[in-house]
Design a protein that fits this description.
There is one protein chain. By secondary structure, this protein is mainly alpha-helical. It contains 21 helices and no strands. The chain folds into three domains: about 220 residues, Hypothetical protein af1432 (Orthogonal Bundle); about 120 residues, putative deoxyguanosinetriphosphate triphosphohydrolase like domain (putative deoxyguanosinetriphosphate triphosphohydrolase fold), CATH 1.10.3410; about 90 residues, no CATH class. Pfam families: HD, HD_assoc. One of its GO terms (molecular function) is dGTPase activity. Keywords: Hydrolase.
């Protein structure tokens, strides 16, 4: 793979082009702006990151988390860009700057959670479990292909994100380079065998009906195949992944300390190995706990950015050749410290009562919503003798543009089910909960 192609700024429907030599905004800055003003991105403000929103203390939502990941991503991309321009001077002649490379990573990082459903990773599992275990989920298996069924019983937020980014419904039409940097898992859901040594094959990055879109993007950028079903990661995807790893490790710990799940003393002890000689215990006495948390967090993130860029530079050539396939944060000098933070976070934060209660509620809400809509759709098109007045009322709650024509016993319903999952997974936590209460008769509008 060559950087000249990997950094091309073409979009679907455009002819391939390089970055303009003179422009007030690069194509990648346009990507960033389109994402910021999009409805799916705005919806992240009411999707929890880890904790339900408490009344007294600030904790992160998916929106604030995404903004912070994007900020770290821009720093990583710009620093990596400076290295690339020094190593490959020909890139400058094409009008490529370190800021443009930073913008690619920033835009891709901004969207890294855009496909996540309500209630976080529990929401992903709830959607998968519905089709895998619920009677009105399993009922669709006989009507779809094996590869389509693999998509439905393995809901993946990364694949949902790619679908949203290429969908004409949202009008984002991002550059190929930004889409490729977004795609951490360049494979479909159903493959003969997964290479467990490759981080990029741990999950999947697109649903089967986006395969053509992915193939066009990969061909345009010169992204190579590993096998008949799997591709090499775009090198900048490693930086997007690292930005997320850095933020959720450090900032989830900060949130856990803020709401009292992890003590301040333990938090300091966990961050101290990252800071090394820069840590000054005496200065902690001069500031409040909140101020100390903010300063220690900023210093830790800065150090992790420097370490990550150094490792990227070390393995850049191997990335382009498809030989490197690990998380950068697993091999930086502070990897052991991050692993210690992760272990504490799992024990004291991710398995805390407040988080588990939110996840349990999420399972009930998403299963309940999927069951009533799925049952009504199945009754109308595949078992009309069971179609009831209740089903009719439920279907009227679907979006106006929902495809409610052309389905029947001889028609593969996979495209319709994908739109149903789009509808459910695109909800905010609050909207999903309120709609669930109404369709289940727990609450009524105006009462």
């Amino acid at each position: 793979m060559k950087w000249e192609k990997l950094l091309a700024s073409g979009r679907f429907g455009d002819s391939l082009k390089s970055l303009p030599l003179e422009s007030s905004r690069t194509e990648f800055e346009i990507d960033y702006d389109r994402i910021i003003f999009s409805a799916p991105f705005r919806n992240l403000q009411d999707k929890t990151q880890v904790f339900p929103l408490p009344e007294q203390a600030f904790v992160h939502t998916r929106l604030t988390h995404s903004l912070e990941v994007s900020s770290v991503g821009r720093s990583l991309g710009k620093a990596a860009g400076e290295f690339l321009l020094e190593k490959y001077p020909a890139l400058q002649k094409l009008g490529i700057s370190s800021s443009a490379i930073g913008s690619i990573v920033a835009a891709a990082a901004l969207t890294h959670d855009i496909g996540n459903p309500p209630f976080g990773h529990a929401g992903e599992e709830a959607i998968s479990d519905f089709f895998r275990l619920h009677s009105y989920g399993k009922i669709w298996e006989k009507h779809v292909r094996v590869d389509q069924w693999a998509d439905l019983v393995n809901f993946e937020g990364n694949a949902q994100g790619f679908r949203m980014l290429v969908s004409k419904q949202f009008g984002l039409n991002l550059t190929y380079a930004t889409l490729a940097a977004f795609t951490k898992y360049p494979r479909p859901s159903l493959i003969p065998q997964r290479d467990v040594a490759r981080k990029s094959q741990r999950k999947f990055g697109f649903f089967i009906n986006q395969l053509v879109d992915f193939e066009l993007m990969a061909e345009t950028l010169g992204i190579e195949k590993i096998s008949a079903e799997c591709w090499v990661r775009h090198p900048l995807a490693f930086l997007v992944e690292a930005a997320d790893d850095i933020c959720y490790n450090i900032i989830d710990l900060e949130d856990g300390c803020t709401i009292g799940l992890v003590s301040f003393e333990e938090t300091v002890a966990l961050l101290k190995p990252i800071l090394g000689d820069r840590f000054d215990e005496e200065k902690l006495k001069e500031r409040s706990q909140t101020q100390n948390l903010g300063i220690l967090r900023a210093m830790a993130i800065g150090q992790l950015i420097r370490e990550t860029v150094a490792v990227f530079a070390q393995f850049e050539e191997s990335m382009r050749k498809g030989n490197f396939d690990k998380a950068l944060t697993d091999i930086i000098p502070s990897a052991k410290a991050l692993a210690a933070i992760s272990a504490v976070s799992v024990k004291k934060i991710y398995r805390s009562k407040i988080v588990l209660e939110k996840e349990a509620a999420g399972f009930q809400v998403l299963e309940g919503l999927l069951s009533v809509f799925s049952q009504a759709l199945y009754h109308q098109f595949y078992s009309p003798e069971l179609f009831s007045g209740q089903d009719k009322s439920i279907l009227r709650l679907l979006p106006e543009d929902f495809p409610l024509k052309g389905w029947g016993a001889e028609v593969n319903p996979y495209p319709m089910l994908r739109v149903l999952v789009d509808f459910i997974s695109g909800m905010t936590d609050k909207y999903a909960l309120n709609l669930y209460r109404r369709v289940k008769g727990i609450s009524f509008p105006g009462i």
